[in-house]
Amino acid sequence: MAKLHIDPELDRDIKKGIAWAVHAFTVCGIIAGFLALVAVLKNDAVAAFIWLGVALFVDGVDGSLARKARVREFTPNFDGSALDLVIDYFTYVAVPALMIYWFNMVPAPFWFTGQTWSLIAAVIIMAVSCYTFANLGMKSSDYYFVGFPAIWNVVVLFFYLLETGWLINLITILVLAVLTFIPVKFVHPLRVTRWREVTIPMTVLWAAMTLSLVISSKDKGPTDTVYAVQLWLWGGASLYFAAISLWRTFTGVDHEEEA
Fold first, then answer.
1. How far is CA 74 from CA 15, 28, 159, 203, in A?
2. How far apart are CA 172 and CA 155, in angstroms?
3. What angle do CA 174, 238, 171 make, to 5 degrees?
4. Segments in the chain below pLDDT 70
């Protein structure tokens, strides 16, 4: 068969267009984040979590797309990593911090009244997360996060689904704020290759259960068996991620892996 010959310049233009398309896909994350913020201001926590989920999905796959499209080679004057950090700070930190304050998730009954403690908690989240996003050692060579990776969107999700009280919420925020500066390891579910054959299905299970639980959270009843089963599955998947993160923290294994 005759080979198809493409002009080198045209081929490069096509690849450059694909690279820009990947950047455009990344920008979808900030759009989803803004829609989540609007949902918060409308007191619609369910919609906010759904939009944050969309942003999380975009962030989860855009890195792989960027590497396949070789964006650094074809868009050398545009820093996709910086773009990703800006969007992540907004969707992982700023919007969840607003949710803590807006929905008054830390209504501590002492010293101050109203939403003061929720405001303090939100300020702590915003402040300590600046260190995370400026930390050049944010990831280990095998793609585990070093220190709490500012996934406050997930933390707020736990508060919402488990309906935890103000004390648990406050302690959790303070502990995670401290862990931001301590080299404990947190698994990146898509980039860590060790146990990936288990981690990927667990990630899919966690995401599916999260979506289902968030959507049905308003209509659940005290004896809703389906909701309870989904909650247990979601909790089991969450414990899996916690377990392999603790394993990596205490074993000290740090072999560089290809993702």
1. 7, 20, 42, 31
2. 9
3. 15
4. 1-10, 220-223, 253-259
